[in-house]
Amino acid sequence: MPGRKTALITGASFGIGQELAGIFAREGYSLVLVARTADKLRQLASELEKAHGTRSLILASDLAAPGAAAYVHDQTTRADITVAVLVNNAGFGQFGLFAESDLEESLQQIQLNVTTLTHLTRLYLPEMLARKSGRILNVASTAAFSAAPGPEFFRSAAF
After folding, report:
1. Residue 76 and residue 127: Cα distance in Å, rounded?
2. Predicted pLDDT of residue 112
């Protein structure tokens, strides 16, 4: 995707990630679109190419899986893509009491929201620093700013 800057967007198949892909395409960026669903990514890439002439590399990958960040970086390296903007958008949350939550789902949430985000940032940041150019956007829910436990904590806590 020579000639254009490239934005890599995780969680690009719907919601905020899809909207960000549209914004970057309008601004003339080539895209690396990452999400679990290849069909949705292909459809989005086709729409953005028709509307904006944007070229996209599609990477269907479950970023909650260990090693997914290395896979994404390896694919962009093999394609000789210089990532100018890394958008860490993929993520999910759980609701309810932690003691009653599904352990595997909690571990996948940590893998995706913390480990993969950190790993992707660590893989692309040195390249950006060496070029003295690049941007990283970490997208988070407003729930990330909630410092207090739910009201159940205060009703059941013995102080």
Report:
1. 12
2. 93
